[in-house]
Amino acid sequence: MATIESEQAVPLRHPEKLFIGGDWVDPSTDRMIEVIAPATERTFVRVAEAMEADIDRAIAAARHAFDHGPWPRMSRAERATYMRKIAHLLDERAGDTAFIWPNEMGMIHKIATASAARMSGIYNFYADLADDCPWEEAKPSSVAAQGLLVREPVGVVGAIIPWNGPMSLIAYKLAPALIAGCTAVIKASPEAPGHALMMAEIAQAAGLPPGVINVVTADRTASEALVRNPSIDKIAFTGSSAAGKRIASVMGERIGRYTLELGGKSAAIVLDDYDIDTAAGALGGAICNLTGQVCAALTRVIVPRARHDRMVDALADRFAKVVVGDPFDTATDMGPLAMRRQRDRVEHFIGLGRDAGYRIAAGGKRPTHLDRGFYVEPTVFGGVDNDAAIAREEIFGPVLVVIPADSEEHAIATANDSPYGLNGAVFTNDVDRAYAVARQVRSGTVGHNGLKTDFGIAFGGFKESGIGREGGVEGLRPYLELKTILLDAMPSKL
Q1: Which of 66, 204, 225, 481 has the fewest CB atoms within 10 Å, i.e. the most exposed one?
Q2: Distance separating alpha carbons of residues 51 and 27, to the nearest angstrom
Q3: 5, 49, 104, 261: the active-site residue
């Protein structure tokens, strides 16, 4: 079957340029990044690679736009109007968003299509906060006739975007930054720069003032220049915990602001009253989403010891039905991993589990019917100790481990025995029991009977899974600074 990848042109107008100061500009060198389509191992697109000089130029444009441009000085209603234009343009280009996603990181097209349709809602949500957020509050004061607590933009934001969900992760950084009055430099991943470049096109089409949004694609060395530059007031990062620690260290040297959405090794606790096959269906289906390349994935399945074998067999049966293949084929349930090194990583951990003697009940190898592409079968290990490498390290692929527990208390303790605390789930028919267990699990989100996250409320992690929250009103707060103003009388504008 011919794929859409082979039939449609790449929907990017200026992949050979950078977007800085409202214009498409030539990079400082002729170096290019080759983006490989993970299903075909062919070149999808070649994009300009930014060097440190380009990063500095983008920061200078964002700094000038914040210090001297109209954006922070507009009313929130005016900024909201631009954001609604962005939302409209995203809807118009939803098909382009859905096309780029599979060709850069392997997401199956039908899921990409559904995800693309939700992007505009994020910008509209934050545009609505122009009126719905307490931007200025009168406060009683013991030292002045009138106290005010006001919220002002944090300044210039460096948004560092990973390769697994770029369009949505751009939105949850950029939309709150824009309504707050910040300007931004978006640093795209070299593996998946397409959505960031598309957002630059949308910003230009929406008529945003020059320098409000700047987009560059760079690898790690040049990216650190973004973090180190003192003209960057805040870093918003999604990625690995190791990289997050480095960012926190660098920002700490100058007391820069940062939010970090990092890794996870999230636990699903299946209690003794819940149907095993139903749980296996939910868990097995969820791990196929983005081929397990999801920080919130429920990759540790903790079950009562007496039910362990049934859970392993049920997951194996579920995985046997998964169709692995071309992400543009509507029959496909799971596409490839994003890149060769990611497949190498997943296979490395599968090898560690095999060498440690854990049972592979399903998967564990590359699909035999696919002779190209970065594919691996969905894999489940049984009888795993919680201190095993495959139970502690974030594999970032379609690999589940099943861990037996001797009691409900033991299950909770096992779930919490992790350096991470991003997501979790409790499978039970008793909502009161679900609530009681959820309150004891140390993670940023706990879902009832499935992998559930709600960016409309807040998303983020405990422990090494991050600092701060994205989504909802909570996701706006990191883009604002609080200022106390003490006056002799109430100003007329209030």
Answers
A1: 481
A2: 8
A3: 261
For the chain, domains (ranges, CATH) are 4-262+467-484 (3.40.605.10), 266-454 (3.40.309.10)
Instruction: State the sign of the Cα–Cα–Cα–Cα dihedral 407, 292, 237, 66.
Output: negative
The dihedral sign for the CA sequence 90, 95, 99, 105: positive
The torsion of the CA quartet 50, 56, 61, 67, rounded to 10 degrees, works out to 150
Closest CA to 194 of 127, 99, 264: 99
**Rounded Cα–Cα distance for residues 171 and 342 (Å):** 25
Q: pLDDT tens, 342-362?
A: 999 999 999 999 999 999 999
Question: How does 283-310 read in b/e, with b if 16+ C-beta sit within 10 Å?
Answer: bbbbbbbbbbbbbbbbbbbbbbeebbbe
What is the rounded distance in angstroms from the CA atom of residue 260 to the CA atom of residue 247? 9
User: How many whole angstroms separate alpha carbon 404 and alpha carbon 411?
Assistant: 8
What is the percentage of the chain residues whose pLDDT exceeds 70?
98
3-state secondary structure (DSSP) of residue 173: helix
Query: In 383-479, at which residue ranges do the beta strands (DSSP E only) sit?
Result: 399-405, 420-421, 424-427, 447-448, 462-463, 466-467
Active site (annotated) includes residue 261: yes
Angle at 241 between CA 240 and CA 242, to 5 degrees: 90
Q: What are phi and psi of 216, to 5 degrees?
A: -135, 155
Distance CA 229, CA 158 (A): 10
At 194, which helix (H) or strand (E)? helix 194-206
Catalytic residue, from 104, 201, 288, 295: name it: 295
Distance CA 3, CA 336 (A): 14
Across all residues in the chain, what is the average pLDDT?
96
pLDDT in tens, 100-150: 999 999 999 999 999 999 999 999 999 999 998 899 999 999 999 999 999
Give the separation between CA 241 and CA 347, rounded to whole angstroms.
21
Q: What is the pTM of this model?
A: 0.96
- Read off the tokens for 305: 């010891």
